[in-house]
């Protein structure tokens, strides 16, 4: 089975990604905490394993990374309705945004989060 890792970057990416994962959960019968609604159906249909990774406790966690330099949008996901679905290491945020300045985002503020982002992608 192939794995699909979703990378959600920036305010729009994080907000759209959060909505997408709500839909993925509804489509595949996964609760807000990552548990399966119908265990018998899971045995016959494992198509969701491309999008979700199973933990040791039988919980399903999205194969996704959320990344934004400004923390408030990712904090909305961390405290939202589906907060227990995501692993905290999947939520990568900086301390301040780049203020619509490419050079600031690329050379200073963004440099601080790039290493964490690559690590998250490698383990994601």
Radius of gyration: 16 Å
Order of helices and strands: EHHEEEHEH
**Overall pLDDT:** 85
Major sheet attributes:
3 strands, parallel
Tell me what you see in this structure:
This protein is α/β, with parallel strands linked by helices and 124 residues long. It has 4 helices and 5 strands. The strands form 2 sheets. It has a 3-stranded parallel β-sheet with strand order 1-4-5, with helices on both faces. A two-stranded antiparallel ribbon has the order 2-3. A hairpin with a 5-residue loop joins strand 2 and strand 3. The chain is elongated, with a radius of gyration of 16 Å. It starts with 5 loop residues before the first strand and ends with a helix. The relative contact order is 0.17. The model has no long low-confidence stretch (mean pLDDT 85).
Summarize this structure briefly.
This protein is of the alpha/beta class and 124 residues long.
List the helices and strands and how they pair.
Layout: E1 6-9, H1 10-28, H2 39-44, E2 52-54, E3 60-62, E4 64-68, H3 71-79, E5 91-93, H4 102-123
Parallel strand pairs: 1-4, 4-5
Antiparallel strand pairs: 2-3
Tags for this entry?
124 residues; alpha/beta; 3-stranded parallel β-sheet; two-stranded antiparallel sheet; 4 helices; 45% helix; 15% strand; elongated
């Amino acid at each position: 089975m192939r794995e699909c890792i979703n990378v959600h970057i920036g305010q729009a990416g994080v907000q759209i990604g959060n909505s997408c994962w709500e839909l993925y959960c509804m489509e595949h019968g996964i609760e807000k905490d990552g548990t399966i609604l119908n265990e018998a159906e899971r045995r016959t249909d494992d198509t969701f394993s491309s999008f979700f990774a199973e933990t040791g406790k039988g919980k399903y966690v999205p194969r996704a990374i959320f990344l934004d330099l400004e923390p408030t949008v990712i904090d909305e996901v961390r405290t939202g309705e589906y907060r227990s679905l995501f692993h905290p290491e999947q939520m990568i945020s900086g301390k301040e945004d780049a203020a619509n300045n490419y050079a600031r985002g690329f050379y200073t503020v963004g440099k601080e989060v790039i290493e964490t982002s690559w690590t998250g992608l490698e383990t994601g």
